[in-house]
Amino acid sequence: MSFSPHTQRDTNGSYTFSSRPRAVETRRRYRETPSELTQMNYGNIMYDRRVVRGNTYAKHVIPTTTQQDLAEILRQQEIRKRALARKRALDQLRPRTPEALQGRKHIDVQTELYLEELSSVTVAADVECQTDDFLDRPATPLFIPAKSGKDAETQIEEGELFDFDREVQPLLEVLVGKTIEQSLEEVMEEEELASLKAQQRDYQERRNNELAEVQRLQEQERRRTEEKVRRISQQKEALRKERETAEKIAARAYTQQYLADLFPSVFSSLRDHGFFYDPVEKDVETHFLPWLMDEVNNRLEQRSAARELLDNIIYDVVQRRLEAFEDVKTPPENI
User: Fold this and answer.
1) Is the pTM value of this prediction over 0.70?
2) Which residues of 38-71 are buried (b: 16+ CB within 10 A; e: fewer)?
3) How much is the pLDDT for 254?
4) What DSSP state is assigned to residue 107?
5) Which one of 36, 88, 109, 196 is CB 3.0 to 4.6 Å from 32, fit for a cystine?
6) Percent of the chain clearing pLDDT 70 (strictly above)
């Protein structure tokens, strides 16, 4: 195999470098700041990536020189997505505040020295601006000095320059150590999460027990309060009935005393006004006597009508006889 032209072989068989070794320049991970971009001087503006050629509304074709940068950007974005997903998973495993009771909710409380008005409405404003598309700055090409000196070639046999087993041992130790360390950290993290979950379960059980005890005490206090109110209402009702009974007894005694002399006078007055009567006498006065008077009046009217008729008949007879007597008494004129 051929060796680099920058190395030379001494007479004793060892290799030396014609130029001092130097570390590879580190490529910047992100694009340069505007101040750094302004410091760069381009020889030809046509090679400036910020200059858009052709139709600005057409789709830009990504140059082949920036494909590697885009692949690096995509890889970094994938790494960021994985980191965010890992962070979300850790957030879900992290112990949180227990859920609020039924009918309650957690609220944010201000603990600052000066209170501020909290508003759920976020003031936002939409601003639009048309800008040109900027691509990431391509990596600076590695500086290669001008060729100087004479080229020399040498043949390196197997095992002379690189021993894989000896060289890879530190790398394997580092990889294995890092893997074991990461595994131990993950195991410890899982144990810590399990311990936190156990503590959270214990806290939840104790909290539920305390809530049950509080509810039992509240229910007991409520029953006692209800019993107290019921006993007070019963006592008030008993006192009210007792007071009413005493008032009734006093009223009854006063009434009896007042009505002792009132009854005879009232009965005598009612009797005088006809409210107390004999049924037979009342029936005779109400039904028999009116009927008897009606019958007597009818009989008297009949007698009076008969007498009047008889008087009329007698009067007619007397008149006729008187006329006849007058006729007889007066002599005829022709005799």
Assistant:
1) no
2) eeeeeeeeeeeeeeeeeeeeeeeeeeeebeebee
3) 85
4) -
5) 36
6) 72
